[in-house]
Amino acid sequence: MASEVKTDVVLVGGGIMSATLGVFLKEVEPTWDITLLERLDAVGQESSNPWNNAGTGHSALCELNYAPLGADGTVNPTKAIAINEQFQISRQLWASLVEEGKIKDSSFINPVPHMSLVFGDAHVDYLAKRFEAFQDQKLFERMKFSTDLEQIRDWAPLSVNGRDIHQKIAATWSPEGTDVDFGNLTTQMTDYLVSKGVTVTYDQQVTDVTKESDGTWTVKVKDRLNRNHGSTIRAKFVFLGAGGGALNLLQKSGIKEGKGFGGFPVSGLFFRNTNEQTALQHNAKVYGQASVGAPPMSVPHLDTRYVGGKRSLLFGPYAGFKTNFLKQGSLLDLPLSLRPDNVYPMIRAGLANMDLTKYLIGELLKNREKHVLSLREYYPEAVADEWELITAGQRVQVIKKDKKAGGVLQFGTELITSGDGSIAALLGASPGASTAAPIMLNLLQQCFPTHFDGWAPRIKELVPGFGVQLNDNHDLADELFAHTAQVLGINN
Question: In which pathway does it act (predicted)?
Fold first, then answer.
């Protein structure tokens, strides 16, 4: 038996993106009816789950791929600055929600310094150039650089103890880094939405989205627990925020803006260490250089993590390949995503990224012994028995049409909106969750242009730095950074 209901907004997927968009909409249009549909039995269980992502609080403090060495031998900080600006927007939103009592506490975020750690002459020279490029940037002013083994030991003893003292090594250290449990944050945001009348339903899988002649959308939903029950929802606006599952629904929507998009899934494994004595010896997120051909999300890193209030260590990722687009998805996801309009772009992108294929094959051939050897590059004295290998989340890298190359593989996120603004989808991976607030503000501007000016005052209350480049406005940057740190309890 199927029921039919009408609503203003449907949010597909119960992750950090839908939760963030839902919060913004409830704040600027409290009378709108919103329905959130989640295919699992709780929110934040796929990409937003703390064990399925790095939880870095992506602010480009330590991720070297955001400021690579250019062909001219220089480092351009522009992209890293932009990502840090985006993270500050998210951080301001979170602080406002805590300060206004809309989410219960700041247990989702903890202060953890961010580090970059490199080895060998060429990488050390690069890191020195990167540090020099960042020195005059306001958002990176607290970053320190060192090639001194004892200084680096003070920052991250586990990464230095037992290392060859003659090895060439360098590190940068940024004390303002954070660790974010996006599962916790998603749950708190969703609880707030429920308290404001948002309908949140679980075990509901969207099977189709169709545009009607009056401009509304029909969303067909299957009850995963009872196949005899389903629903049809008529909505004025639909957001496809279902992680890897968004591509299939975007294709079903039929909007021209979604033509030519494909996805390439990359799975991941992490080593996890829950030994409290070991975890207490390491307080940093230590990022290295990615292997040749590796996607940015496969950059090796040794992380301090806080999940459920408990401190642990995480190392990885070790990349893998499965054809499902969600961790709890179907192995048919990739083949069923092939369409006449995306086959050629996917082939062209594949041919242009053969080094990625070689990298994945190499990763798949690794056994536990080789996994431990990789760990010991960043933690020389690691005790193998303390580490368990866990399966992390699935990431679906965006493939899109390109006039020159035919198709390109992208490693970021892609927001796709229809011409009339009635539907939007978010594809891609890193930096993802950390930039949820600015991405959703961008969506609001694109999809609701006639409303946005009227919403601006409330948005500025929630995000005081919205529309301002903090890197160029030093006094405001200091003020907002200090305020958010105090509210979120992350002074460091």
Answer: Carbohydrate metabolism; tricarboxylic acid cycle; oxaloacetate from (S)-malate (quinone route): step 1/1
Residue 318 CA to chain centroid, in angstroms? 17
Asked if residue 87 lies in contact with residue 176, where contact means CB atoms within 8 angstroms, the answer is no
DSSP calls for 414-439: EEEE-TTSSEEEEEE-TTGGGGHHHH
| CA pair distance 283, 223, nearest whole angstrom | 44
Structural contact between residues 211 and 228, judged by C-beta atoms closer than 8 angstroms? no
pLDDT in tens, 219-232: 999 999 987 788 99
pLDDT of the residue at 52: 83
Cβ atoms of residues 428 and 436 within 8 Å: no
DSSP characters for 154-192? HH-HHHHTT--TTS-EEEEEETT-EEE-HHHHHHHHHHH
Distance, CA of 197 to chain centre: 28
Write the CB contacts of 208 (distance below 8 Å, at least 6 apart in sequence): 218, 219, 220, 252
CATH superfamily of 2-488: FAD/NAD(P)-binding domain (3.50.50.60)
- Distance from C-alpha of 418 to C-alpha of 401, rounded to nearest angstrom: 17
Domain boundaries, the chain: 2-488
Structure tokens at 293: 């051909």
pLDDT tens digits for range 473-482: 999 999 999 9
* pLDDT score recorded for residue 224: 92
Average pLDDT, the chain: 92
Taking every pair of Cα atoms in the chain, the longest distance, rounded to a whole number of angstroms, is: 72
φ, ψ at 465 (rounded to 5°): -95, 10
pLDDT tens per residue across span 261-272: 988 888 888 999
Comparison of pLDDT for 260 and 53, the residue scoring more: 260
Give Cα 42 to chain centroid, integer Å. Answer: 19
One-letter identity of residue 460 = K
Average pLDDT over residues 209-214: 96
* Opening angle at CA 491, ends 490 and 492, nearest 5: 105
Could you tell me if 127 and 67 are in contact, meaning their C-beta atoms sit under 8 angstroms apart?
A: no
| Residue that has been written with the tokens 């009872």 in this structure | 226
Residues in CB range of 386: below 8 A, 6 or more apart: 273, 275, 278
